Amino acid sequence: MTGIEKISEPLRQLLKSREIIARCELLLRIYDIVDGANLSDRESEELKSLVGEKMERIAPGVFANIMSGETIFSDLPKLDTYTQMSGRIFHFQHTQRYSKRDFDDANRKFLQALPELKKILRASLAKMLKEFMEGAGYALSKESGECFVFTAGERTAEVHLVTSIRSVDLDAVATKTESKTDCVGIVDYIILVPSSESLEPFMQLYREHGAKAEEKEIQIWLATMEKGIIDPFVGYTTDLDIYKQFKNPRLAEMVRSNWCQNE
To answer: Which long-range contacts (CB under 8 A, 24 or more apart) does 203-209 make?
Structure first.
């Protein structure tokens, strides 16, 4: 079985069983399929070249390729239209006739799948984070639940992973920053959050807690799953190696400039 077949076959089965599928679920299922395919280095490079070399990670490239309507995977349905249900985007084929019940069933299946999707998201975020920090020259020294500690020389980065912007607990991390004077070297405290289909919760978090996060020297990083990248959302790193890993290193500065309320 070729690398393409390792991806296309489970994709075909997924879209056969879920003709109407939530955008976020399709994305996460692709991450899971790619991760479970155990692609060789050669297969990975071949897939990257086919779905777009601008994408450093295969899963976002496969997702973008399917959304483009000109997919490299044969026999996949063309998800060329969409609707919104309960604030979520659902994709489907415009050539098929679906009833209200079909859409209600699709939404129900999505809600039932949320616990499993949360596990996939957590695993995908953790893998993305580890690759990001490794690229910046850091090594994972400790992993406990949703907390990952990385070290590079005299620098330490303690990253708290959350699967929703609404789950950010700034106070819990702030408690740790207040005692960091007991630590040797430079310690950065970071919260990693995934992107979502709505900006509203991010705007709310920034306006309510952005100033506090900066005051407590807590950085909030944004993982954009559809692109497979990590960027700063609140706060600034002083580590040039981490700065170089960001695809949009000035994002936090832009957020501060555009969303900060002037009294």
So the answer is: 203/259, 205/165, 205/168, 206/233, 206/234, 206/255, 206/259, 207/259, 207/261, 209/168, 209/170
- Which among 231, 224, 243 is positioned nearest to 59, based on CA atoms? 224
Tokens of 6: 């390792």
* Per-residue pLDDT at 32: 97
All residue ranges of the chain with pLDDT < 50 are: 262-263
How far from 53 is each of 4, 15, 202, CA to CA, in Å? Answer: 15, 25, 30
What integer pLDDT is reported at residue 91 of this predicted model?
96
Residue 20 CA to residue 10 CA, distance in Å, equals 16
DSSP string, 193-230: EE--S-SHHHHHHHHHHHHHHHHTTEEEEEEETTTTEE
Tokens of 102: 């079909």
Residue closest to 226 by CA, chosen among 65, 3, 19: 65
The set of residues, in sequence order, having a beta carbon less than 8 Å from that of 31 and lying 6+ positions away, is 59, 120, 124, 225
Question: Backbone phi, then psi, for 21, in 5-degree steps?
Answer: -135, 140
Residues with Cβ within 8 Å of residue 125, at least 6 apart in sequence: 161, 163, 192, 194, 223
Question: 3-class SS at 190?
Answer: strand
Which domains, and CATH codes, for the chain?
3-124 (1.10.3400.10), 136-259 (3.40.50.10670)
